[in-house]
Amino acid sequence: MTQIYPSLLHHFENLKGSASLDLKKIQPTVFCTEKNDFIGMVQKNHEVHLRKALFMSSFLFVHLSYSFAHGLFASPSVQHLRIEGPFSTAFNAAHAGSPDGIIPPIRRKEPFSAKLSYTHDGQTIYHEVKMAVRGNNSLVECDFAKLKFEILDSVIGSVFAENKKVKVGTHCGEDSGEISLRKRLRNQLTTHREAWLYEVLSVMQFPAQRTQPARVVWSDTSEVAPEWGREIERNSFLLEDAKLAAKRLNLKLEDEEKKWEDEEKSNWDLESLAKMYLFQAMIGNWDWRLPSGRGPFVHNFEVYKNAQGVFIFQPSDFDLASIVTGHPLKETANELRGLYPDKPVLFRQAAYYALSIRKEALLTESHVAKAKQNFLQQLPGIRAKLENYPMDDAGKRIFLEHLAAFESVLNEIF
Fold first, then answer.
1. Rounded to the nearest 5°, which phi and psi values hold at 411?
2. Which of 22-26, 127-131, 157-161, 209-213 has the lowest mean pLDDT?
């Protein structure tokens, strides 16, 4: 198996697209296989070695052209990764899986060094990365916390060529199927289900971060081995960095800690706002908040601003949605009391969440009607794309049940 080291690829960055080449920039470099076969060396001031360098440069760019044409987020196929690092140490520092209690612990999220690798066409690509724990409410319940990483070395020929910063949605824990106190399903089934919802956002024409379902071997190098052992392989998903998504979409990302003023609401994109309300209803998600009397902040949104100064809201973080967990509101829930009592619970839940759109003073009946029509037009396409998505069968069934209940609500209530 050939190993391609980004430290080698770095030397060829100077060659790419150069009108003229400076021999002084060509540093001694060895390109080796796994068996350390000596293939070539580029040395200063030798024309013959410059020709070898150009040949090797062409070889790398042609041989790894797949990575450029089909990089991360290019298809819904599962990306297999191996990541090595002191995860247990980082999780302990963040008190992952520990409740806040009367005096919440200080949850430290200092970056740590790790190594990432993946294989393509018989070649193993290695990257040095800087990782960090992320998450807020999820840290209280997830022993295996959410993560993010930044690639520190060259990404020439890598699937990460345009995405050096990536968030990772992890499996959270090892529960068999019970939901947590905060209605979270703590196992690997949730990861690809949640990733799919970002695909749905794109279908619904939201400006959206891209996702990649993944299968990750987590290799822990902490001094003390965690309870789950030195290695564990679980489903995960990779999420596009919001700043990189904004750049790709030609938008500006707003600070997540931004305090929203009432007068700024006049610049909200109301069409996407109406779609957002219905989207949350469709997936059974209660874990979100817009600026209101409860506070001037947003919760679980990425907010973008376009060139005209209009703010567009992209929903995010769906691990508590019932379409992900498979656990909708109970029939006896206070929220559903007296609400369409003769209907199935999924219909009642979708109706309860969807009717909240009527309380949004900024939206007119025209906004609601247009959002409804948009969903009814897109639902067949969402169902068709779901068929081939790498998700568990139970998850697909749960999704289809939610979509059917939501469609009935749109047709019967709105």
1. -75, -30
2. 22-26
- Looking at every residue in the chain, the average pLDDT score rounds to 86
Residue 218 near residue 232, CB atoms below 8 Å: yes
Please tell me the predicted confidence (pLDDT) of residue 55: 46
Measured CA angle at 412 (ends 411, 414), to 5 deg: 75
* Cβ-contact 191, 184 below 8 angstroms: no
Whole-angstrom distance, CA of residue 209 vs CA of residue 290: 19
pLDDT of residue 16 exceeding 60, the answer is no
SS3 label, residue 349: helix
Give 388's DSSP letter.
T
- Going from the C-alpha of 62 to that of each of 58, 313, 387, 406, the distances in angstroms are 6, 40, 34, 48
In the chain the first and final C-alpha atoms are separated, in Å, by 59
* pLDDT computed for residue 48 by the predictor: 46
pLDDT of residue 295 exceeding 50: yes
Q: Name the strand (E) or helix (H) holding 374.
A: helix 365-386
Decide: residue 154, CB within 10 A, 0-12 exposed, 13-18 middle, 19+ buried: buried
Answer whether 97's CB lies under 8 Å from 142's CB. yes
Question: Is 140:184 a contact under the CB 8 Å cutoff?
Answer: no
d(CA 274, CA 313): 10
